[in-house]
């Protein structure tokens, strides 16, 4: 099997970008874990400037201002940085993705002409000041105000209460000169909701007048990024500081917007920022791949306990328990890689220069991004933890990369949208679609629909699905697809039924929603399972024929792990009987054994530059010898 | 409800010790996370000496040498230290538990008289040098040698190969003067297996001649502990350096031991060290309790998204998804606390001065310790991670303790016995018992036994247990007990059947074992589930009548979470039908809602000293206000 062909399949649509960044990355060697926080920040700032000099950050910006307009390319490049120093990844993400991205997509030419070039080159460093101490998930209700003063034609930025302090803001504590500040726009005594403003926060290295900056201090990881807090007291910025692509304030204070509805306007503004979530999902994927590469290579060389038959110590990856720890996660990492590539391609299609605005497709993209970000970052946290444990004490030493990977990625599950909140967002959007499809049915059709649902319930209550006669073949792609997709649809239908009473006047909306919240989250997860499955299957079809048989097996393992994880649900709903459920587990075991010989190839195909992997964990001589008096296999 | 009565119940048998240590602990304030590694090590060394001055470490040592012989007390005290700086906990554990403990239990009066006093007082700092780079789990096959030279009446300690280097050794990199070194004892050309030797490793702060010391460097956490590596080249120690409680070498090199069988001798020596595992389980429990206390208190005060009915923002702990994240873990933390107290009491009974040696009870204690250490440390890792995420960005800041808790405890799952290996050890011991009970049956009895097993299989294959007629009441304590215990017995019986062919001559022992490994691990986990359930139930019976009703609910939640987690198994084996399985999930939801109002009380009863909890996460003013234009509940 040719590792290059496999890597080509994984590298996907932006393979060239990946190759470039892999070559550049060798210059960005890992940081010494003993660096002080200040020194680490200084180092990451230096690397950020170095990255700017490669021209890579230009890729994503508009060609009108010296960029390449390659939206997909820049997100893919970001993803490859995820094999390296994640502080650099996040600092770069703040500077070019969040700060620069907001100026690009929320601003207009007056901002672009003035700032984009300097932002791309890293001359003007900035922050994305959205989150407040009191409002992280519910950004629609953040409290910072930007009040228009027609007398001076300025906005006055204020932090009206302690909870309105901007918090966790990257680039704020040390390096940022400017911030895109999200605030409630007030003019003529009226509030028009959250808008973004360009606010200078530092002048000659000192906080700008009226801006109070403090440091978030030491964090679990990412200590090369200077997260800080911003408090504003009567900070005046010109009227033109408003990023006015979607709304503007005239000199006399008159407010105008191309989007009438305040909520819709808010979500349209937020939607343009979807790139951040997609990038985080990509970075998480890279980190998980790196952890798996380390753990698989260690698992192949590390031997412990002698086989009583041969007296030879067994490579730990030959133990079933070890395979079950690592190989399903490896399979899912493959699946997520294809899903991520699809997501990036769709984002590129919608957001590349000159693309028509397609609101429906954009909304769909946001849903997918929310779902994949949640599932992908949880997968990364779980995978890196598992890999750390799979490497024992060696996995706890910083020299072996896993501690840093773990600490740096931990925040991915809660920043750029808390995962739980993102899954709810996805479910909400899905329910919107679902509601529409139900609403489109005639009365008869609706009655039949409800009838079918009721039948489904009865089937479940019997504990057996009597409609299904054929016995499950766990390796049948169609059967896997049907099981995964059916679960998603059923969960969604069920939650729609449970939420319907909330539409009644006077209903306890919160109570009804809250009682179904776990169901709602499951429905969202199941939806992501389906789209990840489909993306992997489609990716295999695009791959070279030589690598397809192996990839099919990897997809089998991924799909059956997903089904196995939810097999209680399939049993409860009569989709699997007891024997079939156990056959799924047996198939997962078999697939682990079948893929074991290919494990090294599968991780090599991630194409992680060797200098970034090198560590004593991989270098130490295997301590293998033949044992004269082997322990009984039982404790093996 | 009185928090003191609840705390009294949790504090258990060594409540007085806990009170003392809680009072002392206020002096051991948390470390600055920005401390350099060297400064942090110096600080922890200082705290170690301060701890010695409290006299607390004396508690566990023999009264003959100035100790109090309170074995249970010292382990409980250690547990309370787990609320504080975990580097101090581990440094103290290495010094007094592992190093001092080995001298106490593996040595004889010649060692006790010479060293114990100085060890207790922290004047003589030492290491426990067991693990080698090449052998961590399989310590029976470690490679360091101690070769007796009758000419000089010395043992010569050698590291014969790179893999035999002692690794991850606490106290080695900086502070330790002496080490208990585990090595293969060779005399007269014959190897007698692993024995422990007292070896000076540092003289006047410099490595002793022939000893090469290196530093493990920066770690994921516990950077206040100086873990290092030791390589020995012809290091000579007197014959008396052998810790000779179980075996000795005469002047002429003749080897003798009170335990003939080498394997049994090895496991007897290891068994005396069970205290380390019990202590780790206790420390992990404290860390999980601390994380839960932070997350529950934050969840009560943190509000996000407005209830559309009231316009008031909802406390995040009022969301079902948030309750489901935290409250089952809180319930399990209660269950584990009672199981831990039982385990400590049993250890105390067996190991207190003057106790008769009861080999069977000792073996049983080791099994329980292995199981509880594995389950308890995994619970801690999972709980702390969940609590970190439940606190969002605030949970990622070091000032809020969660990052340190997470990083410091991460290694608990793989040190003092890798959890997977420990569960296998437990399963092996259980199978030994199981084999004995089967072997004791007459031929007729055996046939009936096999017949019953076969019947069980048939029952499972039908997917329905036709023998059971009554419908499950999820809140029935007897039903919960039956489900949990039955699963454990069934899994164990199944794995015994699968392993039986390995006893045949010429069988592929490794292959048979390996194919059943995941089954074996499940059986071990299920066994621990049973004993934890029983311990909690018994603990409630010992509690004040006023607190029992609340504790019963907590046990309900714990038990049903355990059953829910394994409900696929119950469905596959016909122990639950679909409706009953869903009733279990519904009951977990209901119990979360019922316990929600008591969540704060439940965490307060852990009695964690307030100065150790204090952090901005708990102090910030709640950013609650009434929202004029609430978001729809759906995104809540």
TrEMBL record, chains A, B:
Domain Acyl-CoA oxidase C-terminal, chain residue ranges per copy: 486-615
Acyl-CoA oxidase/dehydrogenase middle domain segment(s): 127-235
Domain of life of the native organism: Bacteria
Primary residence: other
Keywords tagged on the record: FAD, Fatty acid metabolism, Flavoprotein, Lipid metabolism, Oxidoreductase, Peroxisome
Membership in a protein family: Belongs to the acyl-CoA oxidase family.
Stated name of the protein: acyl-CoA oxidase
């Amino acid at each position: 099997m040719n590792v290059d062909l496999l890597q080509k399949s994984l590298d996907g649509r932006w393979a060239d970008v990946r190759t470039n960044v892999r070559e550049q990355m060798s210059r960005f060697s890992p940081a010494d874990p003993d660096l002080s926080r200040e020194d680490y920040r200084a180092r990451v700032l230096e690397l950020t400037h170095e990255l700017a000099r490669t021209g890579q950050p230009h890729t994503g910006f508009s060609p009108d201002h010296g960029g390449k307009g390659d939206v997909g390319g820049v997100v893919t490049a970001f993803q490859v940085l995820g094999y390296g120093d994640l502080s650099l990844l996040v600092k770069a993400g703040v500077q070019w993705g969040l700060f620069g991205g907001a100026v690009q997509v929320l601003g207009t030419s007056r901002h672009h002409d003035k700032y984009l070039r300097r932002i791309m080159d890293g001359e003007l460093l900035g922050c994305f000041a959205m989150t407040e101490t009191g409002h992280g998930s519910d950004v629609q209700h953040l409290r910072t105000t930007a009040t228009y003063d027609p007398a001076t034609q300025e906005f006055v930025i204020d932090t009206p209460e302690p909870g309105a302090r901007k918090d966790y803001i990257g680039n704020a504590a040390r390096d940022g000169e400017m911030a895109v500040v999200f605030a409630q726009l007030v003019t003529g005594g009226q509030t028009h909701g959250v808008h973004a403003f360009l606010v200078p926060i530092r002048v000659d290295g000192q906080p700008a007048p009226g801006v109070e900056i403090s440091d978030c201090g030491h964090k679990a990881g990412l200590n090369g990024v200077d997260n800080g807090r911003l408090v504003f007291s009567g900070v005046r910025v010109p009227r033109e500081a408003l990023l006015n692509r979607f709304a503007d304030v005239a000199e006399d204070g008159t407010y105008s917007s191309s989007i009438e509805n305040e909520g819709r306007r808010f979500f349209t503004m937020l939607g343009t920022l979807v790139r951040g979530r997609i990038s985080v999902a990509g970075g998480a994927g890279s980190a998980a791949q790196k952890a798996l590469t380390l753990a698989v290579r260690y698992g192949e060389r590390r031997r412990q306990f002698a086989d009583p038959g041969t007296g030879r110590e067994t490579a730990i990856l030959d133990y079933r328990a070890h395979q079950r720890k690592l190989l399903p996660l490896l399979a899912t990492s493959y699946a997520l890689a294809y899903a991520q590539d699809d997501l990036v391609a769709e984002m590129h299609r919608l957001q590349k220069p000159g693309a028509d605005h397609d609101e429906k497709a954009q909304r769909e993209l946001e849903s997918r991004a929310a779902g994949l970000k949640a599932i992908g970052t949880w997968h990364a946290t779980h995978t890196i933890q598992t890999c750390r444990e799979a490497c024992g004490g060696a996995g706890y030493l910083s020299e072996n990369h896993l501690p840093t990977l773990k600490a740096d990625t931990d925040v991915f599950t809660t920043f750029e949208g808390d995962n739980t909140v993102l899954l709810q967002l996805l479910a909400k959007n899905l329910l919107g679609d679902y509601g529409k499809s139900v609403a489109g049915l005639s009365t008869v059709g609706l009655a039949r629909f409800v009838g079918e649902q009721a039948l489904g319930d009865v089937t479940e209550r019997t504990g057996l699905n009597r409609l299904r006669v054929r016995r499950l073949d766990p390796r049948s792609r169609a059967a896997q697809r049907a099981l995964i997709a059916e679960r998603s649809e059923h969960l969604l239908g069920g939650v729609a039924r449970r939420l319907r009473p909330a539409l009644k006047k006077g209903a306890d909306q919160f109570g009804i929603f809250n009682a179904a919240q776990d169901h709602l989250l499951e429905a969202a997860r199941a939806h992501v399972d389906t789209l990840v499955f489909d993306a992997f299957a489609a990716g295999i079809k695009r791959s070279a024929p030589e690598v397809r048989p192996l990839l099919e097996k990897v997809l089998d393992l991924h799909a059956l792990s997903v089904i196995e994880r939810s097999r209680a649900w399939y049993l409860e709903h009569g989709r699997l009987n007891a024997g079939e459920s156990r056959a799924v587990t047996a198939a997962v075991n078999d697939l682990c054994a079948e893929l074991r010989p290919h494990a090294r190839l599968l991780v090599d195909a991630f194409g992680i530059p060797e200098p970034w992997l090198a560590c004593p964990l991989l270098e130490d001589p295997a301590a293998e010898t033949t044992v004269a008096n082997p322990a009984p296999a039982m404790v093996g």
